[in-house]
């Protein structure tokens, strides 16, 4: 966001200079004026390149936080494709699905990110029937990451009533080759909070994971008022979130909010974790979207996202994909009442600050437990 402001701010200043220069030149000087204009335009172009580079690395840093660390060893062991291996994997999937779409029984319908191509292995369908929630927190997490789930269960996922409202916290998992099926079954028997679907739980499949979350909300929990997709490495001030959603004037429908990303450039550098090939997403910029670390929405939207996603080619950046869905619905994300409550960086713990925010990115589950314990201590926060 800061980077983006610099870009547009710089552009405006240059435009102002341009306009001032124009009125000072007289007609006989047209030729040199014209040459000057060309030089100036070149300068604008070159400097905008510089700006967008820094904006890119800025957004990469943000993404690094919430997409976790990519498994380097796997990347290095991959065979040398002419296209980037990640790129190839995505294209292979698309081609495979295009061939099998609709034609063959059992073949994928629509495309890979369409959630109804997958089946729930565990769905805890009863959790929303017993007690209609005001807010459902959906946390995508790797199947083996029990530590993250336990930390959340002990902290912001602990209370089922927050500010007099029913809040549910559930974890969304895919399948892992050689995963601990029995361990997960027992964990779910104890907590009744695991949703698992039969897609492979990989980094490139995060868009599927998000869309399966949407499918679950639409079909297993349609009576909830609001939902949030929140990453497992977040500090979530759940009280402040519920207070925000209870604020008079917060829409009950077609509402999507969080940290808004405007006009973000698509990463085309093949070494980047957020690389998206032109074949998957041709435009150079994303529509306005909410940063994936934590976005909040009225619970009428999941069904609409699932429906509209049939017509949107999947790509591997889940939050920008939701941005495409909301755009296709003719809607757009809304700024939260207090945008500074959605923070996408981690700095030192500050009890006062953590009492005011809604999201904050953390480094580990240990941090979450420690900060939470301190934040919950009695006494003034500031
Ligand atoms: C990385 O991938 C390799 C091979 O796929 C696997 O053996 C290893 O456990 C993975 N490491 C992490 C940290 O996920
Ligand atoms: C994504 O999940 C599908 C369905 O399980 C699987 O066939 C595919 O290999 C996965 N794709 C990647 C890139 O992991």
UniProtKB/TrEMBL annotation:
GO CC annotation terms, alphabetical: Golgi membrane
Membrane-crossing segments per the record: none
Pathway: Protein modification; protein glycosylation
One GO MF term: N-acetyl-beta-D-glucosaminide beta-(1,3)-galactosyltransferase activity
InterPro entries, alphabetized: Glyco_trans_31
The keyword Glycoprotein is annotated on this UniProt entry: yes
Enzyme Commission code: 2.4.1.-
Annotated membrane topology: Single-pass type II membrane protein
Family note: Belongs to the glycosyltransferase 31 family.
Official protein name in the record: Hexosyltransferase
